[in-house]
Specification:
The complex is a heterodimer of chains A (about 60) and B (about 650).
Chain A: H1 6-19, H2 25-37, H3 42-59
Helix pairs in contact in A: 1-2, 2-3
Chain B: E1 3-10, E2 19-22, E3 28-33, H1 40-52, H2 71-75, E4 81-89, E5 92-102, E6 113-121, E7 124-125, H3 128-138, E8 148-150, H4 151-155, H5 166-178, H6 181-208, H7 213-256, H8 258-333, H9 345-354, H10 366-381, H11 388-418, H12 424-471, H13 478-520, E9 527-532, E10 538-542, H14 553-570, E11 577-580, H15 588-601, E12 604-609, H16 616-623, E13 627-637, E14 640-646
Parallel strand pairs in B: 3-12, 3-13, 8-11, 11-12
Antiparallel strand pairs in B: 1-2, 1-4, 4-5, 5-6, 6-7, 9-10, 13-14
Helix pairs in contact in B: 6-7, 6-13, 7-8, 7-12, 8-9, 8-10, 8-11, 8-12, 13-14, 14-15, 15-16
The chains are: A mainly alpha (about 60), B alpha/beta (about 650).
């Protein structure tokens, strides 16, 4: 039944843009998706977030 | 978005043979007409059964599946039923089949059945784990109340206005769930967990280097302390989740025995009264027995009075005779027999004058006097109390108590008959269990708040130490610290997002609900809007700016429907609305207004109604092209209904 996460993403993005602009937008969006897709699977959600973080840091040249 | 395509039922409620309802693939309303007992609620339950394997009855109580089999087929020895639901979700077609199959020839309880479930996506049948995961994703049970509901369920929304109401609290949680708030909350939790991991990693690395060893060790300790509180918080939250489920079950159980609970309470009270009356009867009987041992005295009272009078007379006579005999002796012997003194002439002459002449010498018989005095003494000592009043009172009380006990026994017998189908111990246990669980929930919530405070304190400590470590400029730690900081900042973004999203949602839900309410109410000139509270309860605001404190049942209904529509329009979770007889509390104007608003509430609406609620021609006129299809539930027999498409 989940189809429209636009408002959720918009809220997260607004806060990022206003107060945490150093954070990667894609990373935060990936977290929303991870939680949406794994409502009952913490391990899978954590694994997906770790992957998104690694990707984000590598994009920023930290790795 | 979830969209229902077709529902096929067989052996389910009044639907004996296999029958199908098709739902058009365009936005609009499908209406199913059926008189009472024709199976409208069964159709709602068939959808519920397909998704969740549950069927609900009055008061949202779960019904035994054994009772769902078609009664006509069951009378012929055929039990069990099946429901097949075709739907689309995210542009993929699904077929869900759930069957309740008897495992013995004559089942009598749910345990005599097995359940087979099949979920097919396209042409691929999903395995059990993937099937359950998909179903949870497509249609979470926790939010089903916003999509499948009847008038009774709508009434619960009044609870949202009651502070501290358990039902209201549960509803608020369910509303937040449909609005997607848990996505942000889980994101916050997971990011904090990962940030803590990164902090621990940074502390470990720092403690390996001499220049950062002290800071690293302190950070390690701080992270360990925080982790300990987090573990405790998680434990409490898991306990709370368990208890919440338990409380929901206990509440349902309590609701199902509510009728019996009242009867049982009265029976317990009457039994106690009977016990007290029996005990008092025992005491009264003892008092009566004691009183009766004395009661015979009252019968002798008159005789005794006479005897006393006679004895008194006799005593006086014998005393008089005795005195006379003493005087006579004194006159004759010139001496007093009592004091042995001589009696001189003047005294003797006076004594002689007191003696009656011509009377024979008085008897000097002391035994007569002694006998008369002794009798008088005996009669005086004899108790002649009259306790007849007391006896009568005791008898009256005894009879009253006996009557009272007979009445109590009759009532207890009636109450016991009413409790025949229940288990009194179960009722008592349900009450006790609900009270215990509620108390535990309160304690755990308090514990969670305390742990949360401690975690916040420890977290500040960790962050202070992390900042000092970062300032130390060790390049080895840079990467780990960057990871920790990114995660912590992201967690804070999600933390802020939870409150902002909820606040924005409340504003949007309030605005949409107000629009829907004003479209549905017949008093548009009086009302300005709806106002939402923190728990998503809605209050009607009059044009004069004041809240309408007292609301009619119809107004409550309209507000609940407005909330339903507003949630649908603002939630990331969207799907069909299936309404069963939702117009029971509404007048004609409100009913027409609600029908007009249906297409605004959800893209797919399935309305189950009886024609007395709303006329067919009226529905057609109001909905116009938004009316996609009509079905009629035709009477075949009291146990059999035929679904017919209205052309």
């Amino acid at each position: 039944m989940k189809t429209d996460l636009r408002d959720l993403r918009l809220t997260v993005e607004t806060i990022r843009r206003d107060s945490y602009s150093h954070l990667d937008r894609e990373f935060l969006s990936a977290i929303v998706s991870a939680e949406d897709q794994n409502p009952d699977d913490n391990e899978e959600a954590l694994r997906t977030i770790r992957e998104a973080l690694a990707l984000s840091l590598s994009r920023q040249g930290a790795k | 978005m979830l969209q229902l395509r077709a529902l096929q039922v067989q052996g389910f409620g009044p639907f004996a043979e296999s029958q199908t309802l098709e739902f058009p693939n365009t936005p609009g309303v499908t209406v199913v007409y059926g008189e009472n007992m024709r199976g409208k609620t069964s159709l709602l339950n068939a959808i519920r059964y397909a998704f969740f394997g549950k069927v609900l009855g009055r008061g949202s109580r779960e019904r035994k599946l054994h009772t769902i089999s078609n009664r006509e087929l069951a009378a012929e020895g055929t039990f069990g039923f099946s429901v097949s639901l075709r739907f689309s979700y995210e542009d993929q077609d699904y077929e869900l089949v759930r069957e309740c199959i008897p495992e013995i020839s004559c089942p009598t309880r749910d345990g005599d059945y097995r359940e087979d479930v099949m979920l097919r996506r396209g042409t691929a049948t999903l395995g059990p784990q993937e099937r359950e995961r998909t179903l949870q994703l497509v249609f979470p049970r926790e939010v089903s109340r916003f999509f499948l509901f009847d008038g009774e369920l709508l009434q619960e929304y009044e609870e949202l206005l009651v502070n501290e109401s358990e039902t209201g609290h549960r509803l608020s949680e369910a509303i937040e769930r449909i609005l997607g708030v848990p996505i942000l909350k889980r994101g916050r939790t997971h990011l904090r967990e990962l940030a803590d991991d990164a902090d621990r990693q940074a502390a470990k690395e720092a403690s390996r280097h001499q220049e950062t060893q002290a800071l690293g060790t302190a950070l390690q300790q701080a992270t360990e302390q925080k982790a300990a509180h987090l573990a405790e918080l998680n434990r409490l939250q898991a306990d709370l989740a368990d208890l919440t489920i338990q409380r929901t079950d206990a509440e349902q159980e309590l609701q199902s025995v509510q009728k019996y609970a009242g009867i049982l309470e009265e029976r317990d009270r009457k039994n106690q009264q009977l016990k007290d009356a029996a005990s008092e009867e025992g005491e009264v009987r003892a008092d009566l027995q004691k009183a009766m041992t004395e009661a015979w005295r009252a019968l002798l009272r008159d005789r005794l009075k006479e005897a006393r009078a006679a004895a008194q007379t006799r005593q006086e006579e014998t005393l008089g005779e005795f005195v006379m005999s003493l005087r006579q002796i004194a006159v004759e012997t010139e001496r007093c027999n009592i004091c042995e003194q001589e009696i001189r002439d003047p005294l003797r002459a006076r004594l002689k004058a007191t003696l009656s002449p011509g009377i024979a010498r008085a008897k000097d018989d002391r035994s007569d006097l002694s006998a008369a005095m002794s009798r008088m003494r005996d009669l005086t000592q004899f108790r002649d109390s009259d306790n007849r009043g007391e006896v009568v009172q005791l008898w009256k009380r005894l009879r009253q108590l006996q009557l009272e006990q007979a009445t109590l026994k009759d009532r207890i017998s009636d109450l016991s008959a009413a409790l025949r189908d229940s288990d009194p111990e179960f009722v008592r246990r349900s009450r006790t269990s609900y009270a215990e669980i509620t108390e535990k929930v309160t304690i755990i919530r308090r514990g969670i708040e305390e742990q949360q405070k401690k975690i916040d304190e420890r977290d500040q400590n960790v962050q202070r130490l992390s900042a000092r470590l970062a300032a130390s400029g060790s390049s080895d730690l840079k990467e780990t610290q960057l990871r920790a900081k990114t995660l912590r900042d992201a967690a804070e973004v999600f933390n802020l997002a939870v409150e902002r999203y909820k606040s924005d949602l409340r504003t949007r839900v309030e605005a949409t609900a107000s629009t829907l309410f004003l479209a549905m109410t017949s008093e548009k000139r009086d009302y300005a809007s709806l106002s939402i509270n923190d728990g998503y309860g809605l209050t009607i605001i009059h044009r004069d700016g004041r809240a309408e404190e007292a609301r009619s049942a119809g107004a409550e209904h309209i507000v609940a429907l407005a909330l339903m529509g507003a949630l649908q329009r603002n939630a990331p979770l969207r799907g069909p609305i299936v309404m069963d007889s939702p117009f029971g509390r509404l007048d004609e104007t409100h009913t027409a207004n609600v029908i007009r608003a249906l297409p605004q509430m959800a893209k797919q609406v399935i309305l189950l109604v009886y024609e007395a609620e709303v006329g067919r021609s009226q529905v057609r006129e109001i909905l116009g092209p938004s009316l996609l299809r009509e079905y009629q539930l035709d009477y075949v027999s009291s146990r059999r209904t035929q679904i017919r498409a209205v052309v």
